[in-house]
Specification:
The protein contains three helices and no strands. By secondary structure, the protein is mainly α.
Amino acid sequence: MGCVWSGGGVLIAWSSLIAVTGFARVPVLDLARKAFVPMIAGLVAATLFAVVV
């Protein structure tokens, strides 16, 4: 998942984001901006957990 979040698999992540925004009738960039902080927080938490374990 870190690869997707950091850009390696960005087409897969964006395709699902575009599908959800189309269904919810929300602009894609607005949803991407709002999801940025939780996404980074999850990436940092998962990385810290992996380092500890």
